[in-house]
Amino acid sequence: MSWISNTFSSSIGRKIVMAATGLFLCSFLVVHLVGNLQLFKNDGGLAFNAYSEFMSHNTIIRILEIGLVAGFGLHIFEGLLLASKNKAARGSSYVSNHIEQNSPWHSRNMAVLGSLVLFFLIVHLYNFFGTLRFGEPLKDAQGNENAYALVVDAFHNIFYVALYVLAQFALLYHLLHGFQSAFQTLGLNHRKYTPLIKLVGVVFSVVVCAGFAAMPIYFYFFK
Amino acid sequence: MFPESKIPEGPLAEKWDKHKFNVKLVNPANKRKYDVIVVGTGLAGGAAAASLAELGYNVKAFTFHDSPRRAHSIAAQGGINAAKNYQNDGDSVFRLFYDTIKGGDYRAREANVYRLAQVSVNIIDQCVAQGVPFAREYGGLLANRSFGGAQVSRTFYARGQTGQQLLLGAYSALSRQIAYGKVKMYTRSEMLDLVVVDGQARGIITRNLITGEIEQHAAHAVVLATGGYGNVFYLSTNAMYCNATAAWRAHKRGAYFANPCFTQIHPTCIPVSGDYQSKLTLMSESLRNDGRVWVPKTVEMAERVRKGEIKPQDIAEDDRDYFLERKYPAFGNLVPRDVASRNAKQMCDEGRGVGSTGLAVYLDFADIIKRTGAEAVSQKYGNLFAMYEKITDEDPYKQPMRIYPAVHYTMGGLWVDYNLQTTVPGLYATGECNFSDHGANRLGASALMQGLADGYFVIPYTIGDYLASTPPKPVTTEHPAFKQAEADVRGRIGKLMSINGTRTPDDFHKHLGHLMWEYCGMARNAEGLKHAKAEIQKLRKEFWSDLKLSGTDGELNQALEKAGRVADFLELGELMVDDALDRNESCGGHFREEYATEDGEAKRNDDEYAYVAAWQYVADNQPEILNKEQLTFENVKLTQRSYK
Amino acid sequence: MNLTLKVWRQKNRNTEGKIVDYQVKDISPEMSFLEMLDVLNEDLLRQGDEPVAFDHDCREGICGSCNLFINGRAHGPESGTTTCQLHMRKFSDGDTIVIEPWRANAFPVNKDLSVDRSAFDRIIQAGGYVSVNTGGTPDGNEIPIPKEIADRAFEAATCIGCGACVASCKNASAMLFVSAKVSQLALLPQGHVERKTRVENMVAQMDKEGFGACTNIGSCAAECPVGISLENIAILNREFLAAKATSNNLV
């Protein structure tokens, strides 16, 4: 079965893994955002807590979670590996290089942006996931774990709010390149559809990141 | 005694087929026992190396470029002729043959040219099969366009980059054989001498341009595909590295050099803009399909244009002289290259030239743009227009192009027989390197045709004839001739490095080029040629006593490479002058002012000069011996060319 | 005009290089960039110094030999242009111009500004051809090819193999070069027979040569002197994926 390992260890194979996991993670972002929109429901967090309870205890979701972890893991591992291989391919660097004249900054700095998002992810997991899964969270009126209280608590810390908002900028730029780039890597480039894909990519990136950034801001200022 | 041209007996149309049957074959099992060296990997060399390897021979291919894909064949723009008659406009093998013989002003061999026309159709098939993306019609069939010197549409093309696409086709075939191990490719290796063992070509001496190492290579036969010598003129449309060294070294080892004075001056080049100019850029001849050539009617008007007082697009129709259309109503702007060039020169000599130097005529696209729109014109010539604008900073969509003739191609070259074998047995010459098919003037879109014909379809047959009579025993570099040749090469390089004078190789080259262009260029006369001969001899002496080089010969040293090439140009230049002096007639690209008709057209002298002048080297600084191969014409009637 | 040149000088592959400053005077705006370097080299040679080695040949923008990294850009500041077609009118009197060779592990420096691009040849040798021998091919009009397909194949085929894509790519990736050949032959019916093995072998060779992976930045297409489109890279990816999924090669 060496053809499988050969395929996925080739430069294009690795990129295909990046693209596929990237798009998968995009789908996760959508689910995550849609679910979290319940934070805005003015019910003291009951709906959000019910949703949170479901997500953390449903067997199917727990199985899917393994896939999500694998997706993140692969995306991060391949990303860092490619970044280091690509850096090595250059060899000595130019004395004068005006690469900014032929390509946008964020497309060249996906590894940096991705690392920022990763850092955020670790803090984010520690804040919520860790406490909910491994700590002893309080219960709400319906007996569900009170994730809502954790959110309110965290988002009254200005440092967390700042970190969360900044992280969304990193994610925004990561997605602005990553979304359309994934389609290109999967070979989906067509003069009819590519402009559409690019447009959807921009709208997607902005909506998702704005949606996530709205939460800490909303809680810090209005709750 | 002059070696035979080995033209097969029989009717013209049957010669090649009969010959293919009559040549000896090498048993398939024996082919791998023969080594063939191919020098140069452009269209002719690349095609030959690939085809010979496919047959089973072991090929060693050499190029001084970093890759076979860089050969100057790549720069051919307009197209490639083939007698396919896809357009149903009356083309045929005979017509292509006839046009080529006539276009060459009856100084080419009938049999060779007929064979060229015959195999032209196979070339197109071959290239299409290789994935060469020729231009196509909406129905999916191959498109054609017309070209100078022909009244049928038989030129296949790939926008303005036909040479590139054909070369990449040959390069891909060659790459495949390299991958199979049948071709051993030596890049950045320059051939500096031919090794002749017991009268037969048995190898070459090369210099590795990166390390400076001198290497010996042995083989059963050597094929030269090293291009033309247009860079004798310093300024030409040839690439900077194009040179005559391989052919000239072979000449000095016994290969006759034929018709060296037959050089083609291409009419549509971007004019010279200053002394620093390193090369000239061709604007494809295909532009003359739609562009109209003109100058102002009066000297006064031309003067105002030169001073910038009036713009060409503001000159009224009545004040323009479309001189080609006026003088040659039948062919108009599509007259052959030599005629178009000479007329442009004539206009400038009359004082009606344009541009700041007065050495240019207009090539105007206003009519076609008005008729079909800029978009359609861009489809056809977009890349050429863009190139013109890049170089001149003028927009040809808005104002006419300025063009002037420049050295483009050399019809002369190593003398070869019908088998493309030179006078040294086992040494072959193909493509522009030989003299064989274009006579005194080459028609547009015929260089690509000849290079590929020689490489794909002629040499694979004819070389077998020679190899079959050579025992399939390994050849080595043991023979003292290899040591001697290597010592000669080292001696020359050592001498060049040790002169330590004051003038650079480029400086000498420019000087030589100036002499050649002035006295052996578009128009020549006995007095000027004699003057040039003396000047070249003087310059050569100076070269060997005042050359300046730096660095060492054990590394990449581009000035040293150049010096070696200039040294050979300085010898070849003199031979060109000798040849031009000998040929007391005007024909094709060779225009002797003393021999012109009343209205200034070239006047041939078929009774005395219907021969190939094949020059034989004797010794340094001694006159070469002229051997004459009489040309016989059994299938065409010699007429004064008329394109009126 | 008068200019200050900062030129990369390197004796050979195995030595370190450095930037050396030179002054050139009385440069005409009509000169090409390489003619300006000719002026420098003539001066150096006359002084007994070694001229700057650089690759060039046709000076018409088609052979792909010239390869200078000028002021931080492959082939200099003008887009869609090879170094030889860059003219000095794009610079101004008093300018400082930094001139470097292409930099990529797969393109070692021969000397000064001349690099070894034989990796490109080896990629083509891995499969950038249609395996037909000379002779015995069908008539050129046997297989009609839609004009649009022929035109697109032609556009991909115009790659001059200069290596600007590799030089300008942050990852020193050769994907644009490889994709141009793969899509040319994938588009044409003549190339269909071998399309699977071709893309597998060419990509394997590309990786072996040490080029980086494509991250779809687009510098390559932006700097390509002949405008090879990024669409070709998508075609290459698609061809690769399809070949790996369906070919019978167990590699």
UniProtKB/TrEMBL annotation, chain A:
<feature type="transmembrane region" description="Helical">
    <location>
        <begin position="110"/>
        <end position="129"/>
    </location>
</feature>
<feature type="transmembrane region" description="Helical">
    <location>
        <begin position="196"/>
        <end position="221"/>
    </location>
</feature>
<keyword id="KW-1133">Transmembrane helix</keyword>
<feature type="transmembrane region" description="Helical">
    <location>
        <begin position="158"/>
        <end position="176"/>
    </location>
</feature>
<protein>
    <submittedName>
        <fullName>Succinate dehydrogenase cytochrome b subunit</fullName>
    </submittedName>
</protein>
<feature type="transmembrane region" description="Helical">
    <location>
        <begin position="60"/>
        <end position="83"/>
    </location>
</feature>
<keyword id="KW-0812">Transmembrane</keyword>
<feature type="transmembrane region" description="Helical">
    <location>
        <begin position="16"/>
        <end position="40"/>
    </location>
</feature>
<dbReference type="InterPro" id="IPR034804">
    <property type="entry name" value="SQR/QFR_C/D"/>
</dbReference>
<dbReference type="InterPro" id="IPR011138">
    <property type="entry name" value="Cytochrome_b-558"/>
</dbReference>
<keyword id="KW-0472">Membrane</keyword>
From TrEMBL, chain B:
<dbReference type="InterPro" id="IPR011280">
    <property type="entry name" value="Succ_DH/Fum_Rdt_flav_su"/>
</dbReference>
<feature type="domain" description="FAD-dependent oxidoreductase 2 FAD-binding">
    <location>
        <begin position="35"/>
        <end position="448"/>
    </location>
</feature>
<dbReference type="InterPro" id="IPR015939">
    <property type="entry name" value="Fum_Rdtase/Succ_DH_flav-like_C"/>
</dbReference>
<dbReference type="InterPro" id="IPR037099">
    <property type="entry name" value="Fum_R/Succ_DH_flav-like_C_sf"/>
</dbReference>
<dbReference type="Pfam" id="PF02910">
    <property type="entry name" value="Succ_DH_flav_C"/>
</dbReference>
<dbReference type="InterPro" id="IPR036188">
    <property type="entry name" value="FAD/NAD-bd_sf"/>
</dbReference>
<dbReference type="InterPro" id="IPR027477">
    <property type="entry name" value="Succ_DH/fumarate_Rdtase_cat_sf"/>
</dbReference>
<feature type="domain" description="Fumarate reductase/succinate dehydrogenase flavoprotein-like C-terminal">
    <location>
        <begin position="509"/>
        <end position="643"/>
    </location>
</feature>
<keyword id="KW-0285">Flavoprotein</keyword>
<dbReference type="Pfam" id="PF00890">
    <property type="entry name" value="FAD_binding_2"/>
</dbReference>
<dbReference type="InterPro" id="IPR030664">
    <property type="entry name" value="SdhA/FrdA/AprA"/>
</dbReference>
<protein>
    <submittedName>
        <fullName>Fumarate reductase/succinate dehydrogenase flavoprotein subunit</fullName>
    </submittedName>
</protein>
<keyword id="KW-0560">Oxidoreductase</keyword>
<dbReference type="InterPro" id="IPR003953">
    <property type="entry name" value="FAD-dep_OxRdtase_2_FAD-bd"/>
</dbReference>
UniProtKB/TrEMBL annotation, chain C:
<dbReference type="InterPro" id="IPR036010">
    <property type="entry name" value="2Fe-2S_ferredoxin-like_sf"/>
</dbReference>
<dbReference type="InterPro" id="IPR025192">
    <property type="entry name" value="Succ_DH/fum_Rdtase_N"/>
</dbReference>
<dbReference type="InterPro" id="IPR017896">
    <property type="entry name" value="4Fe4S_Fe-S-bd"/>
</dbReference>
<dbReference type="InterPro" id="IPR009051">
    <property type="entry name" value="Helical_ferredxn"/>
</dbReference>
<feature type="domain" description="4Fe-4S ferredoxin-type">
    <location>
        <begin position="150"/>
        <end position="180"/>
    </location>
</feature>
<protein>
    <submittedName>
        <fullName>Succinate dehydrogenase/fumarate reductase iron-sulfur subunit</fullName>
    </submittedName>
</protein>
<dbReference type="InterPro" id="IPR012675">
    <property type="entry name" value="Beta-grasp_dom_sf"/>
</dbReference>
<dbReference type="Pfam" id="PF13183">
    <property type="entry name" value="Fer4_8"/>
</dbReference>
<dbReference type="Pfam" id="PF13085">
    <property type="entry name" value="Fer2_3"/>
</dbReference>
<dbReference type="InterPro" id="IPR006058">
    <property type="entry name" value="2Fe2S_fd_BS"/>
</dbReference>
<dbReference type="InterPro" id="IPR050573">
    <property type="entry name" value="SDH/FRD_Iron-Sulfur"/>
</dbReference>
<comment type="similarity">
    <text>Belongs to the succinate dehydrogenase/fumarate reductase iron-sulfur protein family.</text>
</comment>
